[in-house]
Amino acid sequence: MRHFPNRQAFVEALVELFEEHGVRIVQRDSERFALFLDDDPCAPMPVASVSIDMFAATLERKLS
């Protein structure tokens, strides 16, 4: 597993990974969220939203 110097670097890697897979990243205040949309090309609707910072913290905790 790749090691990151700090949580911010880990979060940035997650953002890149999500974007590579077509997930929209939105920022609310100082927190970023991965916004998952359904596959309707005419009117994509959000189906889930995940705090990337919280996701990163959970992954770190579970993997350590």
UniProtKB/TrEMBL annotation:
Domain of life assignment: Bacteria
Name of the protein in question: Uncharacterized protein
